[in-house]
Specification:
Blueprint (H helix, E strand, L loop, with lengths): L8 E5 L2 E4 H21 L6 H26 L1 H4 L16 H19 L3 H26 L9 H7 L4 H6 L1 E2 L2 E2 L3 H19 L9 H18 L7 E2 L3 H11 L19 E2 H23 L15 H28 L1
Antiparallel strand pairs: 1-2, 3-4, 5-6
Helix pairs in contact: 1-2, 1-5, 2-4, 4-5, 5-8, 5-9, 8-9, 9-11
GO molecular function: phosphatidylglycerol-prolipoprotein diacylglyceryl transferase activity
Membrane topology: Multi-pass membrane protein
Subcellular location: Cell membrane
Length: 334
């Protein structure tokens, strides 16, 4: 029996159908944009720059997310190629989105004359608030949920409101609202990043790397609750290592979601989360030890290209002014 309570379609105009999933993702992107513009004012960065970043970054993130997801689920798409483009039905991977967005950002920042790490720091809170809001799109679609649980666990143990409990009743079985777990974790991360960026000890790039560390920690523990994880068949010791790291969750009454053994025994997002945490921590240490005069987060941000462009009209005007004065002096002498 279909127990979905929320219609994934927000409204329709003729043949155009607007889904809540897209509206929620758009709201997350808008919130991230406003947050970046607000912080960018402290460093005299024009808001148009962040608007361009959004207009280019969002499509890049969507493409990266879809490619990442389809690459690991190719068996499901190779005979239905047009389904690859149906992103409104879900099926995008956040790590793929980050890869696509970062590639776009590296190119854009270089062309505009900004240091990647400085702008990435400003954008870190925007990324996490976008993810925090965007996860509610999974809620409406009844996707990316966790393994089976009981109604009492959701309502009595977690004290969740009825609209969430009811929506987690998928065809008669209640499931863990992993979208909510990640959204709450990201909210805590947002507060942490907003506090850290005002600390004097923060150096360039460290807020961005802190975002990756925080998000990956939460993703590692939440991912194992899901039943739709991308996975691969890894060595037994790798699976054992990952499961051992996750075991503290059992102390809080959680159980791992079912993962088809024929599909794989290691969840890709969990292994990638571990890798990202290690790399991010290593980068912070190495950059502090090897980069001389590493700027602090609060130091001014210099744009190497806008300064030249801005000075051209001034130089031109000054040159014309001197030329006029010299001509007047010549005329008087004559």
């Amino acid at each position: 029996m279909d127990t979905m309570l929320l219609d994934p379609v927000a409204f329709s105009i003729g043949f155009i159908t607007v889904r809540w999933y897209g509206l929620i993702l758009g709201a997350g992107a808008l919130a991230g944009l406003l947050l970046a513009i607000w912080e960018g004012k402290r460093f005299n960065i024009p808001q148009e720059f962040f608007m361009d970043l959004l207009l280019l970054g969002v499509p890049s993130a969507i493409v990266g997310a879809r490619i990442y997801f389809v690459a690991f689920k190719w068996e499901d798409y190779k005979d239905n190629f047009w389904d690859v483009f149906k992103i409104w039905n879900g099926g995008i991977a956040i790590y793929g989105a980050l890869i696509g967005a970062i590639i776009c950002a590296v190119i854009l920042f270089k062309r505009r004359g900004y240091d990647f790490w400085r702008i990435a720091d400003i954008c870190a809170p925007s990324l996490i608030i976008g993810q925090m809001i965007g996860r509610w799109g999974n809620f409406v679609n009844q996707e990316a949920y966790g393994g089976p649980t009981t109604e009492s666990f959701l309502s009595d143990y977690l004290h969740l409101p009825s609209f969430i409990v009811n929506q987690m009743n998928v065809q008669g079985t209640f499931h863990h609202p992993t979208f909510l777990y990640e959204s709450v974790w990201n909210f805590a991360g947002l507060i942490l990043l907003l506090v850290l960026r005002r600390r004097k000890f923060m150096r360039a790039g460290e807020l961005f790397l802190s975002y990756f560390i925080w998000y990956s920690i939460g993703r590692f523990f939440i991912e194992a609750l899901r039943t739709d994880s991308l996975a691969f068949q890894g060595a037994a010791w790798v699976a054992s290592f990952v499961n051992t790291l996750w075991s503290p969750m059992t102390w809080m009454g959680f159980e791992q979601g079912n993962l088809d053994a024929s599909y794989g025994n290691v969840r890709i997002s969990q292994l990638l989360a571990i890798f990202i945490i290690v790399i991010a921590i290593a980068l912070i240490i190495v950059r502090r030890k090897t980069v001389r005069n590493l700027p602090r987060y609060s130091d001014p941000i210099v744009c190497t290209k806008s300064v030249v462009v801005d000075q051209q009209p001034v130089v031109k005007a000054t040159t014309n002014e001197h030329s006029a004065e010299e001509q007047d002096a010549t005329n008087k002498q004559e």
